[in-house]
Amino acid sequence: MTIYAGTIVDTPGDPFDGDPADALAEVGAVCVREGIICGRGTLAALRAEYAGEPVTQLPDGMLVPGFIDTHVHFPQIRAIGGLGMPLLDWLERHALPEESRLADQAYAREVAGDFLGGLLASGTTSALVFGSHFAPAMDELFGAAERSGLNITSGLVVSDRILRPDLLRTPRAALADSTDLIGRWHDRGRLRYAVTPRFSLSASNEMLDVCAQLLEAGVWFTSHVNENAAEVAMVAGLFPGARHYLDTYRRHGLVTKRSVFAHNIHPSDVELAVLAEHGACVAHCPTSNCALGSGMFPLRRHLAHGVSIALGSDVGAGAGLFLPKEALQAYFIQQIMGPDGMNLTPVHLLYLATRAGARALGLDDRVGDFSVGKDFDAVWLRPNPGSTLGVNLTYARDTTDALARIFTLATPADVADVWIRGVARQGPSLSEAAR
Ligand SMILES: [Zn+2]
Fold it and tell me: Partner of 404 for a Cys bridge, out of 43, 123, 346, 384, CB 3.0 to 4.6 A?
């Protein structure tokens, strides 16, 4: 057992439900036994309860729950920074040529190492990962994820039209490959499988039927929806019988409480109602939305309809794997939306980067905050004392103010340590640990 003492902050509540301040909690210590949190409170109280147990002091900075990324593409980790293109051009000219390289399994192994090492170094301990179009590449990702201890939900990306030919599979081949992968990896330790059509633009009705068949195994589902105006128009042309973009998934039974849809920047009210009715979640990816010029996320409308949202980095369209940066960008977007925007507080930002993701992924009984009984997945943000963030934390008035300064200024360089189910993964060894 270990007692960790410091400034320990989480959001056991929901800041979108009532006064945001009520959702925040701060304690002086947590104790961890075999990777599971067994107590929280003051250091004095935990010392009295667990006399003689070792205490790890975390002087200055802040310990927060491990970040949870609900939309990130592992095959694009080497393709960040393709600026200046809207979605469909960016896919064709920038992202998909790189994704094709993962046909080479040795290349995919290196990419999986780069990707998981990057997540750890950014303090991300759980993620819903958009996979590769190639089954052997998925074996590499799942194998490396298992060794890393990260909480990973992912699956083979399936498409049977419009994309470059080497990324296409027949529905029959997609069914066979996906079934094999589910058998090998779903519910194995911290790994789970997610059925992943790239988007209905590249998936025929036959392919979407295969996806529905695969969901019967009790796995997860993820895809893209309503990201870009040209994409939305093209999907409407491809599915003349569909009432709206989301309907291309709904009529195949793919909108469920285990479904996470990325983006949803341009939804109709009917689509929001359908998402809420089925308990499906939306992954908001703000830096990607800005980089591709996709649009501004209607957060208030999602909440008004009762649709749960979480954050995704959407690497490689997004600007890196560090979730606090996504939270800050979400804040920026809402600020410039005028009356349609929401005034997000620092408590909202911490919630969005942690517990909201746990809820979206159905993992909130295990991770997302420091409640007793949950896995100790944690990030120690500890800036150098002379850094601008270090100076700002010195002058923070209270916990909420300190959080505001962290979300404004922190970078992966401020990640001093990451714990995965109680196991510390020190900075320099992070990328090696994932290999
Ligand atoms: Zn994406």
Answer: 346
Going from the Cα of 71 to the center of ligand 1, the distance in angstroms, rounded, reads 6
423-433: pLDDT as tens digits:
998 654 444 44
The token duo for 239 is 């599915």
pLDDT, tens digit, for every residue of 172-201?
A: 999 999 999 999 999 999 999 999 999 999
Rounded to whole angstroms, how far apart are CA atoms 44 and 119? 34
Which DSSP state fits 199? -
Predicted confidence (pLDDT) per residue in 241-263, tens digit:
999 999 999 999 999 999 999 99
Average pLDDT of the chain is 96
pLDDT at 14: 97
Between the CA of 65 and the centroid of ligand 1 the distance, in Å, is 24
CA-nearest of 240, 177, 234, 161 to 211 is 177
- Tokens in use for 29? 């210590």
- CA dist 62 and 212 (Å) reads 43
Q: What is the DSSP string of 151-169?
A: EEEEE-EE--SSS-GGG--
Query: Does a cis peptide bond (omega within 30 degrees of 0) precede residue 427?
Result: no
Q: Report the separation in Å between the CA atom of 91 and the middle of ligand 1, taken as the mean of its atom positions.
A: 10
**Ligand 1 centroid – CA 293 distance (Å):** 14
Is the distance from CB of 354 to CB of 68 less than 8 angstroms? Answer: yes
- Report d(CA 365, CA 371) in Å as an integer: 9
Answer yes or no: pTM beyond 0.90. Answer: yes
* Ligand 1 center to 410 CA (angstroms): 24
Question: What's the CA gap between 189 and 25, in Å, rounded?
Answer: 29
CA of 149 to the centre of ligand 1 (A): 24
Q: Tell me the CA–centroid distance for residue 287 and ligand 1, in Å.
A: 12
Q: Which two tokens stand for residue 420?
A: 């995965």
DSSP E strand boundaries for 74-217: 124-130, 151-155, 157-158, 191-197
C-beta separation of 399 from 7 below 8 A: yes
Ligand 1 centroid vs 359 CA: distance in angstroms?
Answer: 20
